[in-house]
């Protein structure tokens, strides 16, 4: 029993601290702290920071350090947003010049004309019908409202009718809310997710997302949802903007994770083959990756808007609701499930595999580990790849949770949270010691402290980073004191 308590004394200590902080915060701000929504939000952010803390703990256990985690989170998040960045372009675009006196429109392109007699086009917010199309000229039926002007021509479609689908219409205080159906002539290549633009004689077009496209004989039915209190009139003309994205969702996620693995591999190679200090390598990485994120995005905010609702559900939704389809007063956030999976895998790897023993042996005495036949360079590279990979997973979850990424500030100081959690959780900065469970509990301590600072009256929220700094310093002092005491007992 004594050996068991001695082995896990740091875990018991940090768990006791977590209980104390929770009880203290609940006593000081019971109405705010004990709300199910606040507890769920604290668990969510504990999971997000817990993932990067588990990753950095492997690096610390080898005797290294990684200061670039926050910048990795920013860069990987930007890569994901750019990979999945959706754009909408009208179905047909070409530049044109309009000669009003002859009702002639000349197209400034060399490709085959996309128009034929009877087609409708939108030009300078005016709708025209094509009487004939020859060469690079269109002869229009309607009286031309502008002359000698250049602009963009969009192939439009005349609306035959617009109706409601009663079965899918939902009455919630507005008769306009529900599913609408627009019918146009001919078969079309539109698909769900494209944008439907309703064009009126007066005013700007209204934009909706297409829910479904169905052929109906020689006509096409386009279904779209109308939100509550959104009034929609029947338009004379529509045009469709085609949805596109650089990569599919799986490829975009794989690319983001691939960037994180490449970063970890680079760190490991520079430390083991070029013999650079981990502090220098990762400090330079902190600056380089942040700069890359700002350069690639033009220092502009990246986001997902209302796109990818299913992906967002799996990234920041609630576990029981996804499982049962029902809402609960308190639910486990999906990031917590991912943290548990990562934590179990990390604990098995560290405690039940020979590679985990290699990492601990490397941290205790690298030279002795090398002489005993351990490929120390390989284990250092693996530890940095694990760290960056965990940061990449967290970066994806952070990006989807926040729904927007500001390259200059996203992920800033996240490495402090991760290192503080690792040190509090039992990882020695000298290497050779560590506990995955302790790191996860310590991450919870950090987030509850953050929550307490924001909820308790009279506490200045600007003290957050000061508290984190003191926690790291205290962890180092305690760790050094314990080591010196143990060394004196052995010598005696």
Gap between N and C termini, in Å? 25 Å
Largest sheet, strands/sense/barrel: 12 strands, antiparallel
Look at the helices and sheets and give the structural class: alpha+beta
Q: What global shape is seen?
A: elongated
Helix fraction, binned, reads 40-55%
Estimate the strand proportion. 15-25%
Runs in which pLDDT lies below 50 for 5 or more consecutive residues are 167-175
> Could you tell me the radius of gyration in angstroms?
30 Å
Name the assembly state: single chain
Q: Count of DSSP E strands?
A: 14
Number of helical segments with 4 or more residues:
16
Rounded mean pLDDT is 87
Order of helices and strands: HHHHHEEEEEEEEEEEEHHEHHHHHHEHHH
Describe, in plain words, how this protein is organized in 3D.
The protein has 492 residues and is α+β, with helices and mostly antiparallel strands. It is built from 16 helices and 14 strands. The protein has helices at 2-7, 9-28, 30-33, 36-61, 69-83, 249-272, 278-296, 309-316, 319-324, 334-352, 354-364, 366-371, 376-402, 414-424, 436-455, 464-491, and strands at 87-90, 93-99, 104-107, 120-123, 126-134, 137-140, 149-164, 178-185, 195-199, 206-216, 219-226, 237-244, 302-303, 404-405. Strands 1, 2, 3, 4, 5, 6, 7, 8, 9, 10, 11 and 12 form a 12-stranded antiparallel beta sheet that branches. A two-stranded antiparallel sheet has the order 13-14. Strand 4 (120-123) and strand 5 (126-134) form a beta hairpin. The protein is elongated and about 105 Å long.
């Amino acid at each position: 029993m004594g050996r068991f308590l001695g082995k896990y004394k740091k875990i018991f200590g940090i768990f006791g601290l977590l209980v104390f902080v929770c009880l203290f915060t609940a006593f000081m701000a019971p109405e705010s702290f004990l709300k199910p929504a606040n507890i769920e939000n604290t668990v969510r952010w504990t999971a997000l920071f817990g993932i990067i803390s588990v990753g950095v703990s492997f690096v610390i256990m080898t005797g290294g350090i990684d200061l670039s985690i926050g910048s990795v989170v920013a860069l990987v998040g930007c890569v994901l947003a750019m990979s999945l960045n959706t754009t909408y372009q009208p179905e047909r675009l070409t530049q044109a010049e309009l000669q009003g006196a002859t009702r002639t429109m000349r197209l400034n392109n060399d490709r085959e004309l996309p128009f034929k007699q009877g087609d409708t086009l939108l030009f300078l917010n005016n709708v025209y019908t094509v009487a004939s199309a020859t060469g690079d000229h269109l002869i229009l039926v309607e009286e031309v409202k502008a002359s000698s002007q250049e602009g963009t021509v969009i192939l439009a479609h005349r609306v035959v009718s617009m109706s409601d689908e009663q079965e899918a219409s939902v009455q919630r205080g507005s008769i306009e809310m529900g599913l609408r159906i627009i019918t146009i002539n001919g078969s079309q290549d539109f698909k769900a997710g494209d944008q439907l633009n309703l064009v009126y004689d007066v005013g700007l077009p209204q934009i909706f997302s297409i829910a479904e496209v169905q052929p109906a004989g020689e006509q096409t039915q386009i279904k779209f949802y109308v939100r509550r209190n959104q009034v929609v009139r029947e338009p004379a003309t529509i045009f469709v903007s085609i949805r596109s994205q650089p990569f599919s969702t799986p490829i975009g996620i794989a690319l983001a994770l691939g960037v994180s693995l490449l970063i970890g591999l680079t760190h490991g190679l520079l430390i083991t083959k070029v013999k650079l200090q981990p502090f220098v390598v990762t400090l330079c990485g902190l600056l380089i990756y942040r700069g890359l994120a700002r350069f690639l995005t033009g220092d502009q905010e990246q986001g997902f808007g209302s796109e990818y609702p299913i992906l967002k559900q799996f990234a920041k939704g609630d576990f029981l609701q996804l499982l049962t389809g029902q809402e609960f007063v308190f639910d486990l956030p999906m990031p917590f499930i991912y943290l548990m999976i990562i934590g179990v895998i990390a604990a098995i790897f560290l405690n039940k595999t020979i590679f985990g023993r290699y990492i601990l042996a490397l941290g205790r005495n690298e030279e002795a580990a090398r002489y005993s036949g351990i490929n120390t360079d390989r284990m250092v590279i693996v530890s940095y790849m694990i760290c960056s990979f965990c940061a990449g997973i967290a970066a994806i979850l952070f990006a989807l949770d926040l729904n927007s990424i500001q390259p200059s500030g996203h992920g800033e100081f996240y490495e402090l949270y991760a290192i503080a959690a690792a040190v509090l959780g039992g990882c020695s900065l000298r290497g050779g010691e560590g506990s995955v469970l302790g790191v996860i509990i310590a991450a919870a301590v950090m987030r509850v402290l953050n929550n307490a600072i924001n909820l308790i009256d009279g506490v200045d929220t600007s003290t957050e980073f000061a508290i984190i700094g003191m926690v790291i310093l205290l962890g180092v002092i305690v760790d050094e004191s314990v080591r010196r005491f143990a060394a004196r007992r052995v010598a005696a």
